[in-house]
Amino acid sequence: MEGAEGNAGQPGSAERSHRSSVSSVGARAADVLVYLADDTVVPLAVENLPALSAHELHRAVREVLQLPDSALEAFALWLVSPLLEVQLKPRHQPYKLGRQWPELLLRFTDAPDDDVATDEPSLQFRRNVFFPKRRELQMQDEEVLRLLYEEAKGNVLTARYPCDVEDCEALGALVCRVQLGPYQPGQPTACALREKLDSFLPSHLCKRGRGLFAVLRGREAKAGTGEQGLLNAYRQLKEADGSHSEHAASLGSHYRAYLLKCHELPFYGCAFFHGEIDKPAQGFLHRGGRKPVTVAISLEGVHVIDSREKHVLLGLRFQELSWDHTSPEEEEPILWLEFDGDSEGMPVNKLLRIYSKQAELMSGLIEYCIELSQAAEPAAPQDSVCGPHSASSPAPPATQRPKLRRQGSVVCSRIQHLSTIDYVEEGKGIKRVKPKRTTSFFSRQLSLGQGSYTVVQPSDSLEQSSG
Predict the structure, then answer these.
(1) Could you give the CA distance from residue 98 to residue 124 in angstroms, rounded to a whole number?
(2) Per DSSP, what are the bridge partners of residue 464?
(3) pLDDT tens digits, residue range 279-330?
(4) Does the CA dihedral 14-15-17-23 come out positive or negative?
């Protein structure tokens, strides 16, 4: 759900989406191409494509791939281009939505008219945003795990999932195990890693200066970095695995290990949107400007990620935030996030403005995720995201896994880098700032009524998209 490079960083999965998924269109027969996370294509010959639903195409893909019934909820069909990504509901008709693509681009992106005229989406078979992480690891089918692994790996390598260097090395080591087999002393492993380094680590960690990974110099005392760190992690993985044959252990165990490691990332499985936030005023003239961000929304909360620096600026669970969106005529749409914080030691409410034509979609997705969470059975305790905690938030139990709070971790909030509007209670009322509100946004917090999520017209509602 991220946009193109000129907007918010082009997602790796969208690089191939300039190709149409429909090679021929007829009233009765058509050839449809559905792309998988590993760039392979599933060709489908279908009848009466204009009337075909996403559910029917989903079933056809599962039959070709021989996936179990559990894949019905784990995956969804998406329409994806470099400008916009949309997860389809089962009742949606992909062909009709594809015909309406220019309208969606004009409504939910800032793409120039020329790009709108030439952009064409592809159909992709990807993870369902609304599939809980706890159920993901219950999957036993190796092909299901492989597809989830391939998608997660792509998001890590393209830095859509920002990771600390240590995590990149640990994840890269698992990719080495899958692609190269167990580590074997004496084999030319280092050469294989060097030649395909960008297959194991994100590209921004593969930059070469006067020495390999000059971008990471100065950290070798803590742990090996870059190629050497990856090699060390790969060697240690072999010790943990204990196998000496490439086929001694099922790859499914390594797919599951990769996914389990990704589950530590608070934005795993999110829907991604493009936006901008105000920069803090700097310099004598108090110049600010705007910073491009990616807004990641899942069943657990919201994260605002710096699109260029590849680190989290703000991470909030739904219990810690309130929100609203405004789309006044002749003004820019804004998603408002409100959370508790402090200013010079005094408790305040903070408002963060996210400028985006997708503000309505983001607000609707937050509402829908909360409704799903309230309707779902009680889940196992989840890791708290790094970020501010409201005074009413209960302390995590002692048995909970440790929070991701490494110093300088890319997954921890950097509230000091945000330009927020702060206000405090003053007597019986609230000290108001523009835009004036009659009540706090907190009136919406976890108090949603039942209802369906509908935002996009003239077609049926779309559960999320981005540009």
Answers:
(1) 13
(2) 87
(3) 887 766 656 789 999 999 999 899 999 988 889 999 999 988 889 998 877 7
(4) negative
Residues in Cβ contact with 146 at an 8 Å cutoff, skipping those fewer than 6 apart:
251, 252, 255
| Sheet strands (E) in 309-396 | 311-317, 322-326, 334-343, 346-355
pLDDT band with cut points at 50, 70 and 90 for residue 414: confident
* Phi, psi (rounded to 5 degrees) for 142: -65, -35
| DSSP 8-state assignment for residue 92 | -
Task: Give the separation between CA 404 and CA 385, rounded to whole angstroms.
Answer: 7
| Cβ count near 410 (within 10 Å) | 23
* Nearest alpha carbon to residue 76 among 52, 98, 93, 57: 57
Taking alpha carbons only, the member of 301, 300, 272, 304 closest to residue 291 is 304
**How far apart, in whole angstroms, are the C-alpha atoms of residue 61 and residue 55?**
10
Nearest-angstrom CA–CA distance, 341 and 101 = 41
Dump the DSSP string for 115-132. Answer: HHHH---EEEEEE-TTS-
Q: Which percentage of the chain shows pLDDT scores above 90?
A: 41
Confidence category of residue 85, pLDDT binned at 50, 70, 90: very high
Give CA–CA dist 89/92, Å, rounded: 5
pTM of the model: 0.78
Q: What are the residues facing 349 on neighbouring strands? A: 340, 423
Give the residue-averaged pLDDT of 149-153: 97
Contact criterion met (CB below 8 Å) for 288 and 277: no
